[in-house]
Model the fold of this input.
Amino acid sequence: MDLFRTPDERFADLPDYGFEPRYADVDGLRMHYVDEGEGDPVVCFHGEPTWAFLYRKVARPLIDAGHRFVAVDMPGFGRSDKPTDRDWYSYDRHTEHVTQVLDGLDLRDATVVVQDWGGPVGLRWAVEHADRVARLAILNTGLFTGRVSKGFVGMIVEGATATDIDARVKAAYEAPFPTPESKAGAAQFPVLVPIDEGDPGVEEMRAVTDALSRWEKPALVAFSDSDPVFPYPKSGQAFVDLIPGAGEQVKIEGAAHFLQEDRGEDIAGHLLELMKS
Done:
């Protein structure tokens, strides 16, 4: 398997970040993760084409409040190794590699936070490890069971935020992908969305949906008011209607698809309230 490893210098002086990189070897891939703070863990799952940097504004208030922040870069993203063959990537592989990293972190009473492709991956991890998970927080995501429009495409960060991002922040999102070969995972992720009922991943996502229909633990559903991919309120209401433990949907105002970038501190506040429940 041919791999691309983004040079460390690409991640120097990231704005408002400063988390120590940690690594785990999974089937020959060096997987990057963040593990900061102490207390009950908050495990955050990123999507396409982002990485742990996306959650920096969410992380700081949580750590300051005495919680542990954990985020894993999926294969092909962030500081994790990037297989250069697009055919290597699959929903199962993303889930399996992240799971192996998390298995080594002794997580208990976790709050699982998901967004974008982090939804299918993170919610699957949560229901398959329900004994480790105390609550869910579902942000701008969906589960795909083979009935998605063929017009669905991946979004880029700059075009999916409601606020302007400065050049240093934009560079931080671009840092993992300095060459065409480094972008194989980012290019493949959008086409992994099942659009027909026989596509790979449909059966697994249906199983996740079924498990969520019996999820009695607390679940926060918070969707932004300006997301063209998962529009409010319809997309979030699907989770509210599905999950017994979900309360009323929260609207994050002034935010687009990447609401962690637009309103990260607000999201952290909602998470802190959730963890008091």
Notes: Confidence is low (pLDDT under 50) at residues 148-156. Helices lie at 56-64, 91-103, 118-128, 167-174, 184-188, 202-212, 234-242, 259-276.
